[in-house]
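Appendix B, example 12.
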Amino acid sequence: MMMAQSVCADTAMLTEILPRIEAAIINPAEAGDEEEEDDHADA
């Protein structure tokens, strides 16, 4: 029983997170400029 509850919680979490990941892949500019900042920090 506890395992099933855990799976449901994970699924609910993924349902919230996946659209953000999808948007970041489709349009990284909207996700923020963190990656660009990291590139500048390495240079």
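The mean pLDDT is 74. The chain has three helices and no strands.
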